[in-house]
Amino acid sequence: MTVLIQYLDTITNAQSLEELWQQHCDKMATYGFDRLIYGYTRQRTNKSLGDIEDMVILTNQPPEYMNQFLDAGLYDDAPMVNWALENAGACSWSWIQDQIEQGAFSQAEMDVIEFNQKMNTTGGYTVSLKSVSARSKGAIALTARQDVSQEAIDQVWHRHGTDLIVMNNVLHLKILTLPHFGGRPLTSRQREVLEWVGDGKTTQDIATILLRTSATVEKHLRLARDALGVETTAQAVLKAAFQNQMYVLDRAG
Fold this sequence. Notes:
Number of domains: 2
Number of strands: 5
Shape: elongated
Oligomer: single chain
Strand order of the largest sheet: 2-1-5-4-3
Number of helices: 11
CATH topology of the largest domain: Beta-Lactamase
CATH architecture of the largest domain: 2-Layer Sandwich
Helix content: 40-55%
């Protein structure tokens, strides 16, 4: 069994997002990439990537990096994020230096570059994942170890780039099949009532099916809306479906 096939077998059989991400981080580290950020949104518009709370963000970057890059909004002006939004495939971070020499970046983009230099996040590759919808976009930033130059990581990519792209694409596809949520997970009862709503049942129908009162069903629907951070039950069904929290095997909860 080849290294690639063995790894794909491992990650496609991962049972949780945490297990999957740890396996991927460990594997990427063997190629010299020790800090990763994966991001995916289904709320992209011409002006925004959507609410950060609705994105899937996975990372092993230290908190001091993510506090600035993500929470303080630096990602909005990050050159490689902007590249990923307009392209699909892989890009060496040597592209940044080429653009600097051409004077192509705004001051806000240069501020992000300066921040990355301070945080020793200067060498690596970005893989922009193909989208099937104008509203969705996924990408992963692979940061090289501090002792690995961009030239050295480019050589690694020259040798293993095809395998690395396949691994990261399969990671993305696997993430889309696993439950994920930014806030509180749904309880089994909340999932159940949303599933019945998704099947076209009314509150009274669900009460009859579950041998509960309509008020009890509405309470579970309200708690589900609260957990998902939405206003309507229709939004709750859609968001729970996006997060793969519906029609799943029973879990504790």
